[in-house]
Automatic annotation (TrEMBL):
Signal peptide: none
Entry-linked Pfam families: Metallophos (PF00149)
Lineage: Bacteria, Bacillati, Actinomycetota, Actinomycetes, Micromonosporales
Residue span(s) of domain Calcineurin-like phosphoesterase: 3-76
Alphabetized Gene3D superfamilies for the sequence: 3.60.21.10
Keywords: Hydrolase, Metal-binding
Organism: Micromonospora fluostatini
Identification of the protein by name: Metallophosphoesterase
Amino acid sequence: MVIRIAAVGDVHMDEDVVGRFRPALDELPRHAEALLLAGDLTRHGTESEARCVAREFGGLGVPVVTVLGNHEYQCDQVPQVVKVLEDAGITVLEGDGVVLECTGGRLGIAGVKGFGGGFAGRCASDFGEPEMKAFVRTTTESADALGAALRGLDCDVLVALTHYSPVPDTLAGEPLEIYPFLGSYQLGQAIDSAPTALALHGHAHHGSERGTTPGGVRVRNVAHPVIKQAYSVFELGDHVD
Ligand SMILES: [Fe+2]
């Protein structure tokens, strides 16, 4: 059996964007059984922008599951943003997961925003100033939460959802100098610690679509500027692309 899911990230909603995605979203239930959003739903993380997200992505007829992005933190209104999204029926993950009953089986989704830190051989280390240790600790705690959430789900197909990237592959196109601010290898290790079928992320607007974790899990950057469509559809189960 096959489960089809749709995904997009970095839609950066505000009043001027409302309606742009809706025609394609109205068609979504014909193509997929769930929509996953990879964070950066808003521009500055305000409650009014969150209401735009709710109008655009609420009431689709399929479950909508999201993680937050760094933009959702800009105005210190995270609790208000989460409440608006949840009131619209959108499931917000941060260090936890959800299992959806799909026609092809039970789809497990574990999510965290994630954080930066960099990749093997070119990463921040837990050494020196307290500020640097706090930076690395943020990444480590986020990755640990993702790994625990992934391993804790009882499902047939497992998907990891983050905003920051777990691999450098999908950052190709971004300046090398900012890779440490776009993702962390620790997220990739977390994904590889469970039988993950697919890892989805956003954040890297100038990155690339396809990558693979060291453990062989396919990674897809679904940032809207990368996929250049309202959402991409992925097949999970017996047949994968
Ligand atoms: Fe971002």
